[in-house]
Amino acid sequence: MDYTLHRVRAEDWPAYRAIRLAMIRDTPLAYLETIDDALGHPDSEWQFRTKRAEGPGNIGVAAVGPEGSWVGVMNGFLPAPDTAKLVGVWLHPDHRGPAGGAAALMLDEIVRWAREETAAERLVLLVHEENRRAIGFYRRSGFVATGHEEPYPLDESQRELEMVLPLRD
Question: What is the CATH classification number for the domain harbouring 112?
Fold first, then answer.
């Protein structure tokens, strides 16, 4: 399937809101907010999130399907000068799998951004210990577990695993 990439802009907040709600409904353990919390956000919160994606040290990319709708999203930010962080990753179930390529296309853009626009040395992420599909995708994409774990904020009896992709030799 043919996908195009779209860099998230401030005016994209309605589409971003729609995909974020779909993300949380589809995989609630993957995101650090509940559907009730997300539904309760005013428009100004969604506007803030998309405006932030355009700001320095941030990126949001959406995979756009042939019919023009957003089918996936990935975000990145720079928490430290040498480290970029991958967050808010999701792909609609109808577009998952290696044959489609939308996830790899988005990740390639995040990696390009991290290397070229931020000069980060590594790309890190946290993934819920039970999110096996995501862990598999990240491993196939070159990420390795660091051994660092953190409590999952919505249920501290569960863990988030840190993975890293080195960006420099």
Answer: 3.40.630.30
